[in-house]
Amino acid sequence: MSTEFTPQEGSCSCYSNTYTINHTPIARFICHCTICQDYTGKAYNDVTVLFKSDVSELDINKTRFRRWKMPPNISRGLCKRRHKPSIEMAVGGALVFIPTDNYPNAAALPEPTMHLFYNRRVKDVDDNLPKYNGVVQSQTMAVKELAQGMYKRVTKR
């Protein structure tokens, strides 16, 4: 991945929901929780996290948001047309989660840093990424990754 980020036009799989991603994500991880499995229809969700200000031309009128579990930490958006993952929002909309499949050039993204809720995996993944199990371990490591990414962004490191 280059240190320079070229803006990308992200979208759901049918291109009903489009948006421009203007900055390198602050985090990327792979989540194996059952909610992400249900949301994506896949074994896991390879997702990037950005500040809302990093995403422009976002028209959420074509997105239906749903909260799978209370408390609603993340609102997951599905395309109204084909009901496929579009965009997710957390922390009152301040953070935007975008599934990596929604980028036209995933090779330009930072590599994922970890697997979360690995105890819920559908099948084993053979890579060198750390694998965290359960709610406490997974959420703690996700928050740590987000905090580090935010700190690097703010301090431009």
Question: What does it look like?
Answer:
- The chain has 157 residues and is of the alpha+beta class.
- It has 2 helices and 10 strands; from the N terminus they run E-E-E-H-E-E-E-E-E-E-E-H.
- The protein has helices at residues 34-40, 134-155, and strands at 8-11, 18-21, 27-31, 45-51, 55-56, 63-66, 74-79, 85-90, 95-99, 115-116.
- The protein has a 7-stranded mixed beta sheet. A 3-stranded antiparallel beta sheet has the order 1-2-5, with no helix packed on it.
- The protein is globular, with a radius of gyration of 15 Å.
- It starts with 7 loop residues before the first strand and ends with a helix.
- The model has no long low-confidence stretch (mean pLDDT 91).
List the defining traits of the structure above.
2 helices, seven-stranded mixed beta sheet, globular, three-stranded antiparallel beta sheet, 29% strand, 157 residues
What's the short version?
By secondary structure, the protein is α+β, with helices and mostly antiparallel strands. The protein contains two helices and ten strands; from the N terminus they run E-E-E-H-E-E-E-E-E-E-E-H.
Let me know the average pLDDT. Answer: 91
Q: Can you count the helices?
A: 2
Shape annotation: globular
Helix/strand order: EEEHEEEEEEEH
Question: What is the topology?
Answer:
Blueprint: E1 8-11, E2 18-21, E3 27-31, H1 34-40, E4 45-51, E5 55-56, E6 63-66, E7 74-79, E8 85-90, E9 95-99, E10 115-116, H2 134-155
Parallel strand pairs: 3-10
Antiparallel strand pairs: 1-2, 2-5, 3-4, 4-9, 6-7, 7-8, 8-9
